[in-house]
Structure formats: structure tokens, C-alpha cells
Fold this sequence. Notes:
The longest helix is centred in the N-terminal third of the chain and has 10 residues, at 3-12. The radius of gyration is 18 Å and the shape is globular. The chain is built from six helices and 14 strands. With 222 residues, the chain is an alpha/beta fold. The chain has helices at 3-12, 27-35, 50-59, 96-105, 137-146, 182-190, and strands spanning 20-23, 44-46, 62-63, 72-77, 81-82, 88-89, 106-114, 128-132, 150-153, 170-175, 195-198, 200-201, 207-212, 217-221. A hairpin with a 4-residue loop joins strand 13 and strand 14 (217-221).
Amino acid sequence: MTIKQLIAQTALTHIQPGMVVGFGGGSTVAELVNEAANLVNDIQVVTPSPTTQQLATVLGYTVINPQYCDRIDIAFDGCDQLDHHGSALKSGGGIHTNEKIIANLADEYWLLTMQSRVVDHFDSQIPLVLEVLPRALALVMRSVAARGGQATVRTATNRDGLTLTDNGNLIIDCQFPSYAHLSELNQHLRLIAGVVETSYFDHLVTNAILGNEVTGTVQTLF
């Protein structure tokens, strides 16, 4: 059994029949979707991830659109880094706006990740990512520079052109010299006209299941 499968089996114990369950993106969450397949007739699924939605549909889950869902019992997702205060950076996937909708709808928001990703201080090498309306591009680039950051528009890896979110917006990767005042920086960036959301999840995480690849064990945080 892999460490990701062990994390998924631990998470599975928190899913009960009758629940509305959020499944995010990533390979560990995919393991959980597969592990929970015996509950396909007992739960409803909400997801921000097109990949997870496809997997859940193939497995026979009832997948509901978040716009028609006003409450989620429990949601599971991954992250790039997690601190000890329930905050996380989720910069890689570029679906953080839709993930935040799920996180805010959920009574419990669980992250499934590796112990090595839990930090005392966030690594500024990981970009703070913005989802931005296309017409706000120049404004956002100027505003990030004014805060001492370097902004780069994310380009597509499988075709010529820019990466667009499922909402049709741009993804801007922002590097800053330090994350010493990340919560304040995040709030400033969120207030720029045209910024839809950021990849910093400020005190949104209620619990986490952490896998240790060295010992092959898992533990629960918070």
C-alpha cells in the first residue's frame, strides 16, 4: 500500500452516508475518490476539478454543481504548503478560486498532503498566484511590482498561448522576496480591481491528514 493510499483510507473514515462531500484535485484526492467508490449511492459529490469530476462521474457518483449547493459536510483537497495555523498555499493547479468556493461552503475542510509540506513559515519560492480578469492584466502587473513583487503570466504547456482558468481568466504567478507578512500582502492583492482570488488560503483549513513517506505512517493535524 502506498502512502497516498494510506492517507486516502484514513480520510475515508470521516465520510458518512448522506453527506455532501467535496473532492479537490490531485493524485491523493483521486485515491480517496477511488477508495470511497463503495459509497457512490450514498453521498453527493462537489468538485472544483474537471479531472476529479470526470473520475467521479465514471465511477458513478452523483456530481452536483457548486452553484446549486449551499453547504458541504466535508471537503478534501491537497496543497503546496501548510502551516500550523490552518493556512495553506495552493499555487500549482490554478483552480484556487473554485477550490476556495468549496472550502468556504464546507463545514470541515481537510487537506491531504505529506508531512514534509508542513512548515513554520511559507517558502517564498512558491508563487502567490492570482486569478485575474484579462482586462485587468496591466493594472495587476503594475500593482504587484509596486509591492516589490515580480509577476509572470502563466503560459500553457501543451499549446502556444496563455493558461486560462475554467472561468476564462488569466493566471498570474507572483514572486515576492519574503512572505513575512503574507496575510497582509494577500489582502492587499485581493483588493486590486480585476483580481478574482489568490492561492493563499488564510485560516481556511480545519484539519489535515499527513503522510510520512519515510515511516509509512499518517497523522492528523489540528
